[in-house]
Specification:
By secondary structure, the chain is of the alpha/beta class. It folds into three domains: 166 residues, 3-Layer(aba) Sandwich (Rossmann fold); 177 residues, Argininosuccinate synthetase, chain A, domain 2; 30 residues, no CATH class. It contains 13 helices and 14 strands. Strands 3-2-1-4-5 form a five-stranded parallel β-sheet, sandwiched between helices. It has a five-stranded antiparallel β-sheet with strand order 10-9-8-13-14. Strands 6-7-12-11 form a four-stranded antiparallel β-sheet, with no helix packed on it. A hairpin with a 4-residue loop joins strand 6 and strand 7. Helix 4 crosses helix 5, helix 7 crosses helix 8 and helix 9 runs antiparallel to helix 10. The longest helix is centred in the N-terminal third of the chain and has 20 residues. It is elongated and about 85 Å long.
């Protein structure tokens, strides 16, 4: 009797992977090893091992990756200032390479020949998972059911029917069918009524933050301390990254901070609408940006803004394990050497406003910035500077006036 091949499935216990697990077994005869990553998704992993085994997995491996997620993935992204299309803080995007990395590790440890995921053929996640597999072990076979002609569950409604038929416990129903992804950094919402951008998100959609209309009438203030671009203190006390984000999620969520409603351009070509909750991430991004205003010189800051856009694309496109991202990290780390100090923020009715920033490495000089003229700045120097700086425009103006005559 031939030995069955093993496949490692990225298993969340959500609708897609809940039906894919038994499908892999009954369609291809795989021994399915379910791999679940603890990334701070609340109580979603409760009972997941029992569910995976009951659904046909030969083994379910759960690994707590929160510390690595924060220190090796979120912090580099934060230091880079990476935001996709002005509003998406890349919560799902940044998690996928880490999950896929450990899938490859599990495949090696368990003697599996294949890895699998539950991402659809229309989304970005399929790219993020598969690029990581290819980068870390191109010899592994990639099994992507949503792109398999034998996979007939071409809608979430069909997946719900399959789950009921196979007696697989799921939270979704045909009336409650949002596609959600949650981790320490954020939670995303897609599908159902959100597929029409004309529909306002319902209050009951939000999970880790309050609707702004139900936020408190009084603000809260938080102070975040940074050392070389990395947040290390909350309200004056040292704190590790996981607890820091958890606490900022709680207080930011209370005030409805970090809610984003976006129609974004997916890598595969179409536009999609998503609603995101990123309370702690929004606070940290706002604080980090404020500290850089004080500590980066003009040329570095402007060039870093360009790098941030490219970095965001690399994360969104799933190119975490590429040489360019490593090279950009080297640049970013140099820019962060002086990004040390404290930022005070005001949280109120969905907003995260700057309430003060200070740094021992500050380049801000009150005597230079003041409207009062002093010995440190000779305004007559500006006359010659402006003449030289504006010379190309002056010449163009002369030519334009001459040609009109």
């Amino acid at each position: 009797m031939a030995k069955k091949e093993k496949v490692v499935l990225a298993y969340s216990g959500g609708l897609d992977t809940s039906v894919i697990l038994p499908w892999l077994k009954e369609t291809y005869g795989y021994e399915v090893i379910a791999f679940a990553a603890e990334l701070g998704q609340g109580d979603e992993l409760a009972g997941i091992k029992k569910k995976a085994l009951k659904s046909g997995a030969v083994k379910c491996i759960i690994k707590d990756l929160r510390k690595e997620f924060v220190e090796d993935y979120i912090w580099p992204m934060l230091k880079a200032g990476a935001v996709y299309e002005n509003g998406y803080l890349l919560g799902t995007s940044i998690a996928r390479p880490l999950i896929a990395k450990y899938q490859v590790d599990v495949a090696h440890a368990e003697g599996a020949t294949a890895v699998s995921h539950g991402a659809t053929g229309k989304g970005n996640d399929q790219v993020r998972f598969e690029l990581t597999y290819m980068a870390l072990d191109p010899t592994l076979k990639i099994v992507a059911p949503w792109k398999d002609p034998k996979f007939t569950l071409t809608s979430r409604e069909a997946a719900v029917d399959y789950a009921k038929k196979h007696k697989i416990p799921i939270e979704q129903s045909k009336k409650k069918i949002y596609s959600r992804d949650r981790n320490l950094w954020h939670i995303s919402h897609e599908g159902a009524d959100l597929e029409d951008p004309a529909n306002e998100p319902k209050d009951e959609l939000f999970v880790i933050s309050r609707p702004v209309s139900k936020a408190p009438n009084n603000p809260d203030y938080v102070t975040v301390g940074f050392r070389e671009g990395v947040p290390v203190k909350l309200n004056g006390r040292a704190i590790d990254g996981v607890k820091l984000i958890e606490q900022l999620n709680e207080i930011g969520g209370k005030h409805g901070v970090g809610q984003a409603d976006l129609v974004e351009n997916r890598l595969v070509g179409m536009k999609s609408r998503g609603v995101y909750e990123t309370p702690g991430g929004t606070i940290l991004m706002t604080a980090h940006r404020a500290l850089e205003m004080l500590t980066l010189d003009r040329e570095t800051m402007h060039y870093k803004q360009q790098v941030a856009l490219k970095y965001a694309e690399l994360v969104y496109y799933g190119q975490w394990f590429c040489q360019l991202r490593n090279a950009l990290d080297a640049f970013v780390n140099v820019t962060q050497r002086n990004v040390t100090g404290e930022v005070r923020l005001k949280l109120f009715k969905g907003s995260c406003g700057l309430a003060g920033v200070k740094s021992p490495k500050s380049l801000y000089r009150p005597d230079l910035a003041s409207f009062k003229m002093g010995a440190e700045y000779n305004p007559t120097d500006a006359t010659g500077f402006i003449r030289l700086f504006g010379l190309p425009m002056k010449v163009a103006g002369i030519v334009s006036r001459t040609n009109k005559k």
